Amino acid sequence: MSIIKVLPLEVSEKIAAGEVVSRPGSVIKELVENAIDAGAKRIVIETKNGGVSQICVIDDGVGMSADDASLAFLRHATSKISTADDLDAISTMGFRGEALCAISAVSKTSITTRQQGSDIGVCVTVHGGNPLPAQECGCPIGTKVEVTDLFYNTPARRKFLKSTATENGNNLNCIQQIVLGHADIAFKVVVDGRVKFSTNGSGDLTQVIYSIYGKDYAENCLNVDYSSGRISVDGVVGKIETFRSNKNFQTFFINGRYIRSALVSDAVQEAHKDRIMVGKYPFCVLNLTIPYDEIDINVHPEKLEVKFSDEGRIYDSVLAAVKSAIAKPMIDKAGVDEAESESEFEGFDDKPQFNGNAIETLHKPTVTTINVKPIDATKLNPVAVFSQTDMSELITSEATMTSNVQVVHTVGSADETNNHLDSNKADEASGEVADNARGYRIIGQAFDTYIIIEVGEKIYFIDQHAAHERKIYEELLKNGAPAKQQLLISQRINVSPVEFEKIMSLRDELDKLSFEVDEFGDNCIIVRTVPQDFPLEHLKEDILSVIGDGITRLENVDSMRNRMHTIACKAAIKANDALQMSELDAIVAWIMNQNDVETCPHGRPLVKAFTKYELEKMFKRVV
After folding, report:
1. Burial of residue 120, with CB atoms counted within 10 A of its CB: 0-12 exposed, 13-18 middle, 19 or more buried
2. Interval 183-224: pLDDT, tens
3. d(CA 323, CA 195)
């Protein structure tokens, strides 16, 4: 008896659907790519309930005849290729003829279409792979594909879908990837009846970037235009203002097709070597034009990966293209007056309906600049990190602190220096007693960044930011969450559509980190509370940094610790902050009481030591 069986068509089609349709975003990608191949110049994408209830893609392309509309649902039915040789020169977005067959096998799908020159259109409907009789109908030239009740006949797959907000975010991400590669097509994206963003189809990539990411990104882009032999690279790469803590804002295309490529990403990163901080990644949108016979796009079910015949040449081309772009002067040496050099986005509102990325505040406080910038002692207590004993030290008067600690001031007037020396002489005896009791002597602060102390036969340099960051982080671990600080003036932040959907889906998790966030219009959030003493100067950048690229997994323990790392870093005093003696003493006192803390949460050392012997050797006092 034979044990090998030919699977029924219904089963094989569902298996094939699993390769092509993994979630609503996969459906949108396939339908939009079909619209592009049909020569559309305007495409409207509508979704409901994360795309599960409905996905609708409308285009003004060439349309189909009644016969073609019916054939389109058959597996491996396509107008893109005819022979095996065509696979070596694929210039279309789709070519396998699997999309509509796979989609209709797990949903209720209908196509309404009309060709140029036809007086009437046709509507073809397929439910779960079973076609219904075609019907004539009136419709405009082009095609409308409507997918409803996705995975209604495969409940096991449907239950693995994420929340509506998460699926909305994934859908928008898929759409953005296509839109950025087709600036010459006008797109309109509607989610649950609300327009998320739209583009005008002018062919200007920076206008598309403005629509999706906002004015800040569009104005801080450098054009990439490079050609070498048969390979060319064009697009944009962001200036330092757009660098991010993940690679989510790097978008790559091969001949207009979105791809994922570690090779291209590595070349972009290498081009920024010595220009970018560790852990930061450039924003970029790059399209590589490569002869079709030098690539193979038929290696991935969703066509997201590409094989190159000569990877080294591709790497070198991208490296040279990005290097040539970032080597251009960041500031025009001709010195154009800022008031006379408005950007090309002058006619756009600062807060367009489809997006914006600048932080908008309801009120901007007046800032007065002074020469000396001591920080208040309470700055060292952003999350109640000091014990009651430490707090008593912080409020000790300056006169008392001076009698307890000897300080070397590197900057100051002659009168200030003489007065300080007189004070030290007067209290020399009591100071020595206090220093001996504590076991260390604070010498002072170097470069407004490093605290210098003397302990026995050694001199220690303490990184004030790293030390304070570690102190805050340890307290966060102990308390489980930072104390909340209600903002006097709530902060409005415009974000990209993808960021908006993800943030909205994670409000409860963000609240655990003391960020109270609410919706405030299209692609705009309002922040009402932050961790205590969290700085507001760059709130958008900081809050997105706290979220990081693990935004969908904030509940994960390791991920939560990473968020605490960032909160501690943002709340801690910074390098180049001139500190008062009470603040120096509080940091040193905490360091002296730690037994197993050697680095900040990010792994940078807190303290470096030099022995008296090493110094004497340096000055040739010993040999």
Report:
1. exposed
2. 999 999 999 999 999 999 999 999 999 999 988 899 889 999
3. 37
